[in-house]
Inverse folding.
């Protein structure tokens, strides 16, 4: 591996120079095993920065990679059986509850409080206060800002004389108008809206993104999945039903095999110029300036997730119009609820690792997250890290230079800023065994709905029944406690 | 001769009629295309840039698109050691486990084909029950005794059909054979976690040895079954005369029977090698950094930016090439059973 | 274990038995023992552990995890509870096709029973075994019938049976055909033999991704063909049955070489002199196949079909990569079902599905073994 030759070179250089900075000896001889997904995204920047970190601190960083879909299980197996061959990991905050709740993760609060170089205040409040924490303590360090946005083709919208969508009605309107036009000059008709609806992929997140604006209006602590009083699923109401219908309607303006496309496919399609609208994390932004895959450089705009002018009344489940009372965080009318799906890759440390190893792991994570390194990484698409620090969102110039152009860069960073500043962000579900709720029950029901096997009522019933069952199996009160702890509800 | 007759009659014993030749070659060539096209597609995808893949199908290098070596460079140069280590692991694990499986399995298959085993059902049950109780106690599940009994009963029901053909309470070769192949029925996804725990207790996680032991055991049933059928077709005359001359069973097995069964050995050996080479789930579980094998690396190319078709294609090609090479080497051993005819005659 | 008669009579044993003689006498045991020990070692613990898992609930807890015994709950949930749609599918009014399937199964059962009774070798355990087989066959046929009815959907059991029955049938037919073609006096037999073997060499995960590329109706190599045929606006992945067929095609592409190579070796091992004699006598190709080739390869063919069927029950890579089990749950096999549950930490549910698969697969394979493989072996002997 490149790192070995790097190390050899560095070692020789160090010996030849004869003197090393004082702090270099701090972690000499310490090896840290860090698990994450196979690159180039996520593991790439870690592997790239490991040599320079070793030069600074003496710690050897060993990046172990596995397929993304296997990270969760691998960590759980390693830590819950006491094997502890993995010292730290970079993974999804959504999984944190299973690890932290069982005591596998190291509490990072004391370390982070004393860490000036980290510049915590610069980290967007949502990640700092919600994403990194569980039950009030910080267990993860953020490297990446993850939430859903809408991307649109500025040239197509201009041609149609439309504004970026503010509500889902707008979205459908634009998709309908654009569907069938040739948007990449190859003579084939293209698609109005491309959303990754494949089963067992990201579909359940996209659905929640559609539903959020109808369901949550009073801030993150109101919760978007369950009622914070008694853990009743927030499914059997007008908002969720409307969301299902909207979600299905977007398929009318999408590719014929949309049910078999996951987000990796749709983002590639969008930057190849075949979609007018798409919903995605921030990746489309950085991919759009990659010449090896993009045909739409300079033609991509971004906006916060569309919202709704009506939200549900929690007591009745019916719609009420948005006003200062019901939608305190509305932006120019509609209520928006940006969804921090997945949460953004972050680093967590094995509580049962060697103390010196833990310190070294923390130092490496801090190094990665410090503005000097992080600001570089988030502007490079292939790292997989999206902006999460407020200062990164002001840095229009870098994105502009990369080929986005001033307007697109402002649009992209602006959408991120608006989303991150919203007090009404939806925190992803982080109660124990959340995968069962989302992947097994919600995703299957939605997939069957999209395939025409179930109608709206049957879908709602399936999700409610499934979620209630899991609540009962795991203990309604315990799940409620965990739920309130993650969203900071009283 | 009429035209039809001339078309449908073979010129001599060892050739085909003209019509027959057309049909046969036609069929073979058709299937060759079916086999080759996906492989061709993999090969050219390894030379494509992402834009070539997402914009629409391009078929001919240099004609439709300019081939690019970025994928090959990334796999070989940028990832260098990260590709070499899994590759070596795969080679070692597959070769060693195949040889062990062939040895142990052929011996078992030979014994089953020549000798009558009649294990007492009662003793088997007792053995299983004892082993079960012992393992449960060791693992410290704290399982109530009647759980173990219920499970033992379940196992008994599985074997009952085979056991009671005659009123003797013992099993025969056929039952042993069936028990052996039934090991393949349980889906690995369920067995993976207990096997993980087993190796963790032994401290052998992430080692090639663990993978070799697991693959050998997992592929044994296939060797036993396929070799059993081959051994049964080998007439016993040669062995009988050899043993009358005083040769030991081992000498007969290694000196006479194995060479005769070469077609079967090669076919089975290649199959088992491939199964071990391509195995994914158990490798995923039992390895992390040191013992990782190629299939896990291939699957990992499905990243958040889309399946990295180009890298994946390079890895797939890297995986196929040694197996093709080995097949080319060994395929001449799958020759017709010449000696069988000689013995019979 | 008791080793009874060896195949021959030795000369009178010497006064003192040497080590090599003792070894020779124990040869039978020694030959088979390593295999038995290895298999026992690796199978008992997983089997028992998974049985326990299937009867319990896994929960993460501070310090590790807890396993609470809950009895048949996981099974009940899947067979009669909220997950019934997943395993058994949804039931619809039975149509003509359903009746045909059920009647055909009943006819087969009756024929089998009549033959059995007539054979005169009826035993208690033989009857019990056949009852199990009959009950399972009838239950499956009813399941198929209701799944295929009006508004019904196939569950993972029915989908898996489709992959097994349909897949193995296609693979056997094509594999046998190719082996016969290759066994003819052709030039370049080695070339074809190696070439046809290649699909098996590709790792299943790789094949799944390759077919995903090939089957892509927008940017795949066949896309122009679909567009020309007018299918530009539809996709195979949006319809349940076409999706299942694509999985079947991918599966067949990979596994036909397995059947091909074994059958080819078997055909090449058939008694050459008999074939030559028959040809000299003027027998046609079909007659030679029916009277000489088929009887000599039938046992191996039955074995290879059995092995293939056992593997086919476990199909997971293709449905997982091609469609993730979609659309809806149309292409989800039992192993994929277990895998999804397991990935979501529902270890109990996952083990329960795996055990259902185990029972189904065992009954199917034991039945096949007893009613097809053994008679063929006995016919040869």
């Amino acid at each position: 591996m490149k790192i070995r030759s790097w190390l050899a070179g560095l070692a020789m250089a160090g010996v030849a120079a004869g003197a090393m900075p004082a702090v270099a000896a701090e972690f000499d001889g310490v090896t840290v095993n860090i698990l994450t997904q196979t690159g180039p995204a996520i593991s790439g920047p870690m592997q790239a920065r490991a040599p320079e970190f070793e030069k600074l601190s003496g710690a050897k960083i060993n990046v172990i990679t596995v397929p993304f879909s296997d990270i969760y299980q691998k960590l759980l197996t390693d830590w819950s059986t006491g094997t502890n061959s993995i010292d730290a990991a970079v993974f999804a905050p959504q999984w944190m509850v299973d690890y932290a709740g069982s005591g596998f993760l190291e509490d990072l609060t004391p370390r982070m409080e004393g860490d000036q170089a980290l510049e915590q205040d610069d980290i967007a409040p949502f990640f700092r206060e919600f994403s990194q924490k569980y039950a009030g303590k910080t267990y993860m360090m953020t490297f990446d800002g993850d939430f859903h946005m809408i991307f649109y083709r500025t040239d197509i919208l201009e041609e149609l004389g439309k504004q970026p969508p503010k509500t889902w009605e707008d979205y459908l309107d634009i998709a309908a108008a654009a569907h069938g036009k040739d948007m990449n000059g190859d003579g084939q008709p293209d698609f109005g809206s491309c959303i990754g609806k494949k089963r067992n992929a990201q579909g359940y997140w996209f659905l929640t993104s559609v539903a959020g604006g109808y369901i949550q209006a009073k801030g993150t602590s109101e919760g978007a999945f369950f009622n914070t009083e008694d853990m009743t699923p927030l499914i059997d109401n007008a908002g969720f039903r409307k969301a299902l219908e909207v979600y299905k309607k977007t398929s009318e303006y999408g590719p014929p095999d949309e049910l078999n496309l996951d987000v990796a496919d749709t983002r590639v399609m969008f930057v190849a110029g075949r979609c007018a609208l798409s919903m995605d994390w921030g990746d489309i932004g950085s991919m759009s300036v990659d010449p090896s895959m993009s045909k739409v450089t300079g033609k991509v705009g971004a906006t916060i997730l569309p919202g709704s002018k009506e939200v549900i009344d929690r007591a009745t489940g019916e719609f009420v119009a948005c006003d200062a009372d019901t939608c305190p965080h509305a932006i120019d009318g509609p209520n928006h609820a940006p969804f921090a799906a997945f949460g953004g890759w972050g680093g967590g440390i094995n509580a049962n690792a060697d103390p010196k190893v833990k310190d070294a792991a923390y130092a490496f994570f801090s190094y990665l997250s410090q503005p000097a390194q992080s600001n570089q990484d988030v502007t490079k698409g292939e790292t997989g890290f999206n902006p999460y620090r407020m200062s990164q969102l002001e840095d229009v110039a870098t994105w502009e230079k990369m080929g986005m152009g001033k307007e697109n860069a402002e649009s992209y960073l602006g959408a991120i800023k608006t989303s991150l500043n919203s007090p009404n962000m939806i925190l992803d579900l982080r109660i124990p065994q959340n995968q069962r709720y989302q992947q097994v029950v919600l995703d299957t029901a939605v997939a069957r709905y999209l395939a025409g096997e179930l109608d709206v009522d049957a879908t709602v019933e399936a999700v409610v029944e499934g979620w209630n069952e899991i609540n009962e199996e795991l203990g309604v009160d315990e799940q409620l406690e965990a739920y309130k702890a993650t969203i900071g509800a009283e | 001769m009429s035209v039809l007759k001339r078309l449908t009659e073979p010129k001599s014993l060892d050739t085909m009629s003209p019509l027959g030749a057309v049909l046969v070659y036609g069929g073979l060539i058709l299937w060759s295309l079916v086999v080759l096209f996906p492989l061709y597609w993999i090969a050219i995808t390894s030379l494509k840039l992402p834009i070539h893949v997402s914009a629409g199908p391009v078929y001919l290098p240099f004609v439709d698109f300019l081939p690019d070596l970025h994928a090959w460079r990334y796999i070989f140069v940028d990832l260098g050691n990260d590709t070499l280590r899994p590759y070596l692991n795969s080679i070692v694990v597959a070769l060693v486990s195949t040889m062990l499986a062939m040895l142990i399995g052929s011996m078992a298959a030979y014994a089953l084909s020549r000798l009558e085993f009649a294990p007492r059902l009662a003793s088997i049950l007792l053995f299983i029950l004892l082993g079960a109780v012992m393992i449960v106690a060791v693992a410290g599940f704290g399982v109530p005794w009647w759980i173990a009994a219920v499970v033992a009963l379940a196992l008994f029901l599985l074997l009952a059909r085979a056991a009671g053909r005659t009123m003797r309470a013992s099993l025969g070769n056929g039952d042993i054979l069936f028990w052996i192949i039934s090991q393949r029925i349980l889906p690995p996804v369920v067995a993976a976690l207990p096997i993980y725990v087993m190796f963790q207790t032994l401290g052998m996680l992430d080692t090639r040895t663990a993978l070799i032991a697991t693959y050998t055991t997992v592929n044994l049933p296939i060797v036993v079954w396929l070799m059993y059928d081959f051994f049964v077709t080998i007439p016993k005359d040669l062995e009988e005369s050899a043993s009358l001359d005083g040769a030991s069973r081992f000498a007969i097995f290694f000196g006479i029977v194995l060479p005769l069964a070469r077609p079967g050995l090669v076919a089975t050996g290649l199959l088992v090698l491939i199964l071990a080479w391509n195995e994914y789930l158990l490798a995923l579980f039992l390895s992390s950094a040191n013992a990782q094998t190629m299939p896990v690396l291939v699957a990992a190319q499905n990243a958040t930016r889309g399946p990295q078709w180009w890298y994946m294609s390079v890895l797939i090609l890297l995986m196929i090439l040694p197996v093709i090479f080995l097949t080319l080497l060994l395929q001449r051993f799958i020759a017709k059973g010449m000696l069988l005819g000689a013995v019979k005659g | 274990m008791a080793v009874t008669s060896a195949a021959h009579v030795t000369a009178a044993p010497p006064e003192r038995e040497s080590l090599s003689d003792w070894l020779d006498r124990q040869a039978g045991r020694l030959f088979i023992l390593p295999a038995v020990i290895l298999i026992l070692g690796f199978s008992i613990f997983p089997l028992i552990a998974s049985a326990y898992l299937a009867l319990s609930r896994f929960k993460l807890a501070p310090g590790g995890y807890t396993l609470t015994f809950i009895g048949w709950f996981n099974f009940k949930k899947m067979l009669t509870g909220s997950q019934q749609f997943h395993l058994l599918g949804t039931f619809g009014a039975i149509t003509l096709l359903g009746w045909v399937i059920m009647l055909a199964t009943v006819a087969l059962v009756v024929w089998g029973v009549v033959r059995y009774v007539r054979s005169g070798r009826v035993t208690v355990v033989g009857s019990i075994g056949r009852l199990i087989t009959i009950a399972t066959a009838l239950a499956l046929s009813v399941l198929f019938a209701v799944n295929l009815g009006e508004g019904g959907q196939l569950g993972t059991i029915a989908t898996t049976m489709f992959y097994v029955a349909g897949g193995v049938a296609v693979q056997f037919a094509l594999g046998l055909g190719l082996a016969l073609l290759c066994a003819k006096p052709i030039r370049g037999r080695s070339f074809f033999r190696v070439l046809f073997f290649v699909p098996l060499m590709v790792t299943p995960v790789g094949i799944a991704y390759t077919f995903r590329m090939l089957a892509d109706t927008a940017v795949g190599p066949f896309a122009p063909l679909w567009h020309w045929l007018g299918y530009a606006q539809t996709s195979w992945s949006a319809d349940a049955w076409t999706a299942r067929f694509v999985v079947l095609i991918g599966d067949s592409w990979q596994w036909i070489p397995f059947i091909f190579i074994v059958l080819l070796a078997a055909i090449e091992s058939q008694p050459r002199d008999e074939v030559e004699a028959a040809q000299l006598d003027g027998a046609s190709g079909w007659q030679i196949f029916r009277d000489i080739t088929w009887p000599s390869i039938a046992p191996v063919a039955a074995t290879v079909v059995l092995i293939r069927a056992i593997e086919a029950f476990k199909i997971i890579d293709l449905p997982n990569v091609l469609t993730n089990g979609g659309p809806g749950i149309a292409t989800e096999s039992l192993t994929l079902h277990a895998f999804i549950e397991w990935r979501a930490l529902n270890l109990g549910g996952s083990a329960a599905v795996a055990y259902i698969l185990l029972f189904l697969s065992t009954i199917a394979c034991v039945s096949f073994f007893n009613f097809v493989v053994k008679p063929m072996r006995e016919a040869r002997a």
Notes: The CA atoms of residues 312 and 318 of chain A lie 5 Å apart.
